[in-house]
Amino acid sequence: DVEFEFLDDSDVNLGDSSSSSDDFPLDIEDEDDESSQKVHAGTSNIEENRNFWDNQLQLLQTNVYKISAVELSIRNATKEAIEEIDRSEIECSCGRQIKGSSARECRNCFMRQVSRCLQNAGFNSAICNTKWTSSHNLPSGEHTFLDVIHSTSKQKPDVRVIIELNFRSQFEMGKASEDYNNLVRKLPEVYVGKVERLRNIIKVMCMAAKRCLKENKMHMGPWRKHKYMQAKWLGPCKRNTSTNSLSMEYSQAVSPKQKVKASMLTVDLSDKISNMHCTAVEVVY
Fold first, then answer.
1. Edge-first strand listing for the sheet containing 125-132
2. Which domain of life, per UniProt (predicted)?
3. pLDDT digits over 89-118, tens only?
4. Is 193 within 8 Å of 161 (Cβ atoms)?
5. Which residue among 31, 78, 110, 142 is buried most deeply as judged by most CB within 10 Å?
6. Around Cβ 220, how many Cβ atoms within 10 Å?
7. Whole-prediction pTM value?
8. Which sequence spans correspond to the domains of the chain?
9. What does R_g of the chain's alpha carbons equal in angstroms?
10. Cα–Cα dist 21/48, whole Å
11. Among candidate residues 101, 73, 108, the one with its CA nearest the CA of residue 85
């Protein structure tokens, strides 16, 4: 079972770690010997590589550990929601009884339960669905996650907090270097944070993935590139505040106006469709 790990409160507002890139300056005498030049170039490459990974780690820690009071409040509520689901027995929309950590096996039902708990706690939570078509170097895809819209005051704009229940696994790679895996281990399993913070983390991890694959002389799949990862959480999406499985499935299946074609098999169904309740869906850009 996947462990839904949150950051401890003691980790919040962790100070920046300083890079040690300038602690050991190179003192190599100039020589005309070709082998000496190769050693110098190799040493420079090693130092540059070490500086890169140290810098990525520092940037990642800054964006993971430093959070606002709003983010902390929603994060704690999300943690309580998951713990409550673990303790209770719920009925999956798939028609089977699930209990405890097995509730996480059905991603859609799990997200719906977490969103319902957040709504009961007073948060404007919704299930979000992003969907994009293929373009140059970007394959088509879609992704579903949660968010919370927090209203502060009339003078200030609303704050949008993204909730991804399987965040760390989105960046895991097979045959990755130890430096890259070290960054992945710093990521929380459940991400709760502002859009700006998520954008920074995506940039750090995609740069690290590109460097890792280049070092291993491996091809970088388009689904790991920066543009694709951004599309998952930061593209236009449909927000669905309903936690009812039937209305959620119907609203997600909405397409441009299409005429219902009647047949001997659908004559009764067409009458029911006309009276079917459709949940309003908000589009976020």
1. 191-194, 159-164, 141-150, 125-132, 237-240, 282-284
2. Eukaryota
3. 766 666 655 555 455 678 888 999 999 999
4. yes
5. 78
6. 14
7. 0.70
8. 36-241+280-284
9. 24
10. 8
11. 101
